[in-house]
Amino acid sequence: MGDPLANKAKRLLALHAPYPGDNLEREESFSGQRFVVYWTSATHHVIMDGARQLEEDLLIPSILLRNPKFLLGDWYTTHQAKQLGWPRSETRKGHNREPMGDLIPRRVSEILNGERDLPGAKTLNRFKCEQVMFNDSVMYEVTDRNLIFRIWAAEADLANTKLNISLWYARHLEKAYRQMHSILLERELENEYYQFRTLEN
Description:
- By secondary structure, this protein is of the alpha+beta class.
- It is 43% helix and 18% strand.
- The longest helix is centred in the last third of the chain and has 36 residues, at 165-200.
């Protein structure tokens, strides 16, 4: 899967520079490589700002980055303004309106739709992934339109940067086929037994 959240966060932070306190005469303030964002634990990401190397790295809850409506540029602007003691009226001037977006479903669909080794015909937009709520928990629903197969995954599973989504899907598909085969075989044996009993009578 990689880390689509970190990649998008890095791009947004660089896009919305400069921030309060930035030195506008330094190239680093406007560099597309200014920020490094990475997953540091099950609950947090780290933001490293190359234009502020003397400051400590900033922790941000990963759940914020997973919120499609979260305005990361605004959040970082507000954080830096607070550090400088800026009034709220000045802080709002630096706000932007581009949200994080729903990155995990997009990445899952992108990987699965590009996979060539999965069972079934390869067609355009075969796979669809969307965020759903289940018992007050965020889940992701993956739909295979060709095989008419649907599977659900917990948010923490798809947020795992080391997850091989193609292998994960293939294993769940194989498990479902085995269960279906077992059910069909059981019904077939029941029918044979019924026919045998009918002949006996």
